[in-house]
Design brief:
Elements: E1 2-5, E2 12-19, H1 23-39, E3 44-53, H2 58-73, E4 76-83, H3 86-99, E5 104-107, H4 110-118
Parallel strand pairs: 2-3, 3-4, 4-5
Antiparallel strand pairs: 1-2
Helix pairs in contact: 1-2, 2-3
Protein name: SpoIIAA-like protein
């Protein structure tokens, strides 16, 4: 798991989820994102790399719904997601629906996800 501001002309926060993501990792990610969001004037896009992530455990799924709601509150305009397998994509769709997150776009490759935000 990692969070950073991308070195790009647009305000983009990159989140990389890998392996089995725990609720504690989601909480730590939220702390880091809030700091970066404030530095960006609470207006930013998010690039999410989920290509090497396993399915979310149930307790993590609940945290992810909260996570997506917080991102919107903190100023996220769009999320562009590089999704790995079909299970991760299915879970992500369910989480987005539960959090009422409607500005998420999914891609098969990291490059496509990044290109969407840069254009």
């Amino acid at each position: 798991m990692s969070v950073k501001r991308l070195n790009s002309p647009k305000p983009i926060i990159e989140i990389v989820w890998e392996g089995v993501v725990t609720p504690e990792q989601v909480e730590q990610t939220n702390i880091e994102i809030k700091k970066i969001a404030e530095q960006l004037g609470n207006s930013f896009d998010v690039l999410v790399d989920m290509r090497n992530m396993k399915a979310f455990p149930q307790d993590t799924k609940e945290k992810m719904v909260e996570h997506q709601k917080l991102l919107a509150q903190w100023g996220m305009k769009r999320a562009s997601v590089a999704v790995g397998g079909a299970i991760a994509k299915m879970q992500l769709n369910r989480i987005s629906k539960e959090s009422q997150h409607q500005t998420e776009f999914q891609w098969e490759t990291y490059d496509d996800a990044l290109a969407f935000l840069l254009n």
